[in-house]
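Batch job 17 of 40 flagged for manual review because the log was empty.
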Amino acid sequence: MRDIFMYISEEEYYRVCEEIDDGQTINIYKSKNIEIDIKRSGKKIYKFIADYGECSLNECLEDMYLKKDKIII
């Protein structure tokens, strides 16, 4: 798992964790290629890290389409 402390400070992370309400999702970091959200569910806190590639949507779809023919189910 990628360490979120490469993107935000530990102090900022723990401050947001204390303030977040149950069921709430907060974006704590966003750049061109990386987005980090945290969500509280009860006493647990989940971290979601989205790493967006540099390929265009059309390139990704074309690649998926070409690979689907090679998949044997």
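Reviewer: the log was empty due to a logging misconfiguration, but the result itself is present. The helical segments are 10-19, 57-68. Unflagging and moving on to job 18.
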